[in-house]
Design goal:
Radius of gyration: 19 Å
Mean pLDDT: 82
Order of helices and strands: HHHHHHHH
Helix content: over 70%
Strand content: under 5%
Number of helices: 8
Largest sheet: none
Shape: elongated
Number of domains: 1
């Protein structure tokens, strides 16, 4: 891990090496496994079947990335690089404004992406409502996490106990979102196996 020392202010390391952190990693990986299992369900590969399989794979890879990122906290690297860019560009004093703007743009982009996925694959999510719920919950978590990283929550004037409550609720969102997607994948695979025995 020492080869990452070339980037001052950041190194590759476990970011949440406690029960709460590892429980979330486990939830993401288990849910990703169930989504992959749903994607691998044997089916006639027509256009709709390929789309269904691709969506399950997309969810599986997304969950796996969130699980890896939970411990490696790769967004911290982006913050370090952003800080260096601000210093080099001479706008470090305005970094808080830049963080606010970035958070707003990120939140808007996240909501637009969520709307697009739910609209584009409406039939899939109608058939798999738990998948829609899980996706919405995890997008909400990502937006809250981005706001906390960019000090938006801090500038909202929260007390320490309130900040701890935010962390507890984000943990609940991660576990709940992962569980919802896992449930959707289990249900979809079971229904497929019943409809296509053998």
């Amino acid at each position: 891990m020492t080869h990452w020392a070339a980037i001052p202010g950041w190194q590759l390391q476990w970011d949440n090496p406690d029960f709460r952190g590892w429980s979330v990693v486990a939830a993401y990986i288990v849910a990703a496994g169930f989504c992959a299992r749903a994607a691998l369900a044997p089916r006639k590969m027509g256009a709709e079947e390929k789309r269904v399989s691709a969506i399950w794979w997309l969810l599986a890879w997304g969950l796996l990335f969130l699980g890896i990122n939970k411990q490696l906290s790769l967004q911290t690297l982006l913050i370090v690089l952003g800080r260096r860019a601000a210093l080099a560009g001479g706008w470090y004093e305005q970094r808080r404004l830049a963080q606010m703007i970035f958070s707003a743009i990120f939140a808007l982009a996240g909501l637009v992406a969520l709307w697009f996925l739910l609209a584009r694959f409406r039939q899939f999510f109608v058939r798999n409502p738990w998948a829609a719920i899980g996706l919405v919950v995890l997008v909400l978590f990502v937006l809250i996490r981005a706001a906390s990283i960019n000090h938006v929550i801090e500038r909202a004037g929260l007390e320490q106990d309130e900040e701890n409550d935010v962390k507890k609720w984000t943990w609940i969102l991660e576990i709940g979102g992962s569980a919802s997607l896992a449930l959707a994948a289990i249900k979809a695979r079971r229904e497929h196996d019943i409809a296509h025995p053998g």
